[in-house]
Amino acid sequence: MKILIVDDEAHIRALVEQTLEDLEDEGVELLSADNGEDALALIQAEQPELVFLDVMMPRMNGFDVCYAVKHELGMAGVYIVLLTAKGQVVDREKGMEVGADTYMTKPFSPAMLRSLATDVLGL
Question: Of 63, 97, 102, 114, which has the fewest Cβ atoms less than 10 A away?
Fold first, then answer.
């Protein structure tokens, strides 16, 4: 099982990795990317079960990555969590339109993030 963490801010990636690192004991592999283009390439190559995806990023934003995965690549089985500072209703609606499974705003609760990961992966 694989989880991909995508955020252009290194400290956010590190925080999410720290939150989920004990899942590695359950056989989960943690992957990361710092921009949308690399994220999309990794999703195609590694086929993670779960992706925590920032919205505002260089080279391709999270909305576009999510849309590409769900609609252009037809990878409906990849569970995508948009994890973003953009908390307005219009942003949440756009997230759902592009195919996000869950929309979480920053700052996030590490306990909620971990709980969501274990639920999605069936751990």
Answer: 97
pLDDT 10s digits, 97-111: 999 999 999 888 999
Residue among 106, 104, 49, 42 at smallest CA distance from 68: 42
Residues 18, 28: Cα–Cα separation, whole Å: 13
CATH number of 2-114: 3.40.50.2300
Q: What is the CA radius of gyration of the chain?
A: 13
Can you give 71-117 as a three-state secondary structure string? Answer: HHCCCCCCEEEEEECCCCHHHHHHHHHCCCCEEEECCCCHHHHHHHH
CA-based torsion, 112, 4, 14, 22: positive or negative = positive
- Give the span between the Cα atoms of 90 and 113, in whole angstroms: 23
Whole-number Å distance between alpha carbons of 82 and 72: 18
> Using omega within 30 degrees of 0 as the cis cutoff, is the peptide bond preceding 110 cis?
no
- What DSSP designation does 9 have? -
Q: What is the pTM of this model?
A: 0.96
Helix, strand and coil in the chain, % to nearest 5: 50, 20, 30
